[in-house]
Amino acid sequence: QVQLVESGGGLVQAGGSLRLSCTASGRTFASYSMAWFRQAPEKEREFVTAISWTGGNRFYADSVKGRFTISRDNNKNTVYLQMNTLKPEDTATYYCAAREFLTGRTEADFDSWGQGTQVTVSS
Questions:
Q1: Cβ-based neighbour number of residue 87 at 10 Å
Q2: For residues 67 and 45, what is the distance between their CA atoms, to the nearest angstrom?
Q3: Which residue from 21, 37, 84, 88 has the highest number of Cβ atoms inside 10 Å of its Cβ?
């Protein structure tokens, strides 16, 4: 497992942008598939996006496709989530998750989690 720390959350107006970062400890970051999930108040945690350990495959939830972009910088042990054209319904706590090699789209697919960073989009 790796230790994950998210940053970059905050308050933004609808239509604005934010970039979240998730930095991992350890020396094997390059072998981990990474993902972002989010949880809105009184809702279940949901998948947002994932990137394979090679960086060659990316997956997005339909609700964010075309607006959010996941990327990774293995030299910095960091995965990013660029969020554009934000909507009030994007308001949630965003969590970074990791799993060695294989990626996935459910919580059960990942075994390392960050503490989350809050994103609030005002209308």
A1: 14
A2: 19
A3: 37
